[in-house]
Design goal:
Blueprint lengths: L1 H30 L5 H30 L3 H27 L19 H29 L2 H31 L3 H11 L11
The structure holds fe (ii) ion (2 copies).
Family: Belongs to the ferritin family. Prokaryotic subfamily.
InterPro entries: Ferritin (IPR001519), Ferritin-like (IPR012347), Ferritin-like_diiron (IPR009040), Ferritin-like_SF (IPR009078), Ferritin_DPS_dom (IPR008331), Ferritin_prok (IPR041719)
GO molecular function, one term: ferric iron binding
Length: about 200
């Protein structure tokens, strides 16, 4: 009987120390790497840039929908979803490295555009801005010796290379087809094929 009590006590102690171990482990894993306040601020700003880009592309999508160019509208709709996915990735990263997440204000995007070429040119222009802004975070992270952030942002640098390349290609294409209804129809068909894939690059 005495032996049985000791065994129960021993098991209880084991359970207790296991619980504590798990809690302690989670605590140390969560905060072993921490970003500086400056990097956290830059990432928070980047989250807002990505969310703004999502709104901007949604507005472009709406413009094409209003012209019955549903394929091109689909392209920008998918582009918008990708930008939200980028914001989510940054949100999760900042959370993982113990940075305080502060959701910023998102400005209203333009909704009036001169024509289809104007939209594709603005999309390319915007991607270039985003690239610069990501480079700026990488530069700051490098200066601080924040290897976790530079490594995390490598995915975004590769993504921007793809984004700029495809945006620039579409500027060339829309210039070729915008004055030719048959060619524009085929271009619209081509862009209707795009589907959103989580974690995909452009
Ligand atoms: Fe993005
Ligand atoms: Fe983008």
């Amino acid at each position: 009987m005495k032996g049985g009590c000791i065994s129960v006590l021993f098991v209880l102690i084991l359970i207790k120390s296991f619980d504590f171990g798990v809690l302690f482990h989670n605590f140390t894993v969560k905060f072993i790497i921490m970003v500086s306040d400056k990097i956290a601020q830059l990432i928070n700003e980047q989250i807002a840039h990505e969310q703004y880009a999502a709104q901007y592309y949604l507005s472009m999508s709406a413009w094409f929908s209003s012209k019955d160019l549903d394929g091109i509208a689909n392209y920008f709709r998918v582009q918008s979803k990708e930008e939200l996915m980028h914001a989510d990735k940054m949100f999760d990263y900042l959370n993982d490295v113990g940075g305080q997440i502060i959701i910023g204000e998102i400005a209203k995007p333009p909704h009036e555009f001169a024509n289809a070429i104007d939209i594709f040119e603005k999309a390319l222009e915007h991607e270039k801005k985003v690239t610069k802004s990501i480079f700026n975070i990488v530069k700051n992270a490098n200066d601080e010796g924040d290897f976790a952030t530079t490594s995390f942002l490598q995915w975004f640098i590769n993504e921007q290379v793809e984004e700029e390349a495809s945006a620039s290609q579409y500027v060339t294409k829309i210039k070729m087809v915008s004055d030719n209804p048959s060619a524009l129809y085929l271009f619209d068909q081509e862009l209707s094929q795009r589907v959103f894939v989580a974690n995909a690059t452009a």
